[in-house]
Amino acid sequence: MEGGFFLVPGDSLVVTGPARIRRTSSSDGTIRVDSKVPVGPDAWTPMMSYVLTRNG
Known about the structure:
Layout: E1 20-25, E2 31-40, E3 43-52
Antiparallel strand pairs: 1-2, 2-3
């Protein structure tokens, strides 16, 4: 993939409704992605986190 990043998918993931997704780039070239979903009116819980690293 362009930029040297790739994601190997497992099962499909479909998020319906609200979600918060934060993407953070690091100085070493990695990208961390964290996501949360609501569990109440003012409460969020982590759903999934992963780190993309440059290949090669």
